[in-house]
C-alpha cells in the first residue's frame, strides 16, 4: 500500500502549480511594495529640496537671526560672523535658541500663498506638502548654521547653510503594514542643505 501511494502522481501538477503561484504572488507583492516605497521616498526628497529653496530665500524660522549683527562680544565690523547654529522644529513649534517664527515655518510647509493647506497650486506658490502631501509641520525641521561666508555689520550680512530635514515619516505599504511592526515602516530621515546667500529679513 505504501509503495502504491508513493508511486501515485495524480494531482502532482496541481500541487506544483500552487507552489509556483505562491511564489509569483509573493514576488508581485514585493515588486508593488518596493515601487510604492520608492515613490514615497522620492516624494519626500523632492519636498525636502523644495523646502530648502524656500527656507534659503524666506524669513528665517529662527527669528533672532534677523537681529544678529556679529558685533556682539567685541566683534569687528566686516569680520566673519561668529559661529552660530539654530534648529527649529515644526513638531514642537520651537527653536533651540531664540523665538520661533510660526508663519515662516508655515510658508515653507504650505507655501508662500499663506493658505495653510496642501493641494494643487501655481508652481511659484507651492510648499513642501504641495510637492508631497504626506509631509506635515510635524515632519519638518529647519537648521541654520554658520557657513563662514557671512560678515558682521549693522545689519549683518548673513549667509547661513540652511538644512531642511524631513523626519518621522512612515512608508505607507500596501500589504506589509498588515504583517510587520510599525518600526519596519519608518522612513529614513531626508536632509537637503543649501546656501542662503540672500536670506530675507522681512519680506
Notes on the protein architecture:
Helices cover 32% and strands 12% of the residues. The chain has four helices and five strands. α2 packs across α3 (102-110). 29% of the residues are buried.
Biggest sheet details: 5 strands, antiparallel
Which strand order spans the largest sheet, edge to edge or round the barrel?
A: 2-1-3-4-5
**Distance N to C terminus:** 91 Å
Tell me, what's the shape?
elongated
Count of helical regions: 4
Portion in helices: 25-40%
What structural class do helix, strand and pairing data support?
alpha+beta
What are the segments in which pLDDT stays under 50 over at least 5 consecutive residues? none
Element order, helices and strands? HHEEHHEEE
| Topology, number of strands | 5
Mean pLDDT: 85
Residue share in β-strands: 5-15%
Overall structural domain count: 1
List the helices and strands and how they pair.
Blueprint lengths: L1 H6 L4 H45 L28 E5 L4 E2 L6 H9 L17 H4 L8 E6 L15 E6 L23 E6 L8
Helix pairs in contact: 2-3
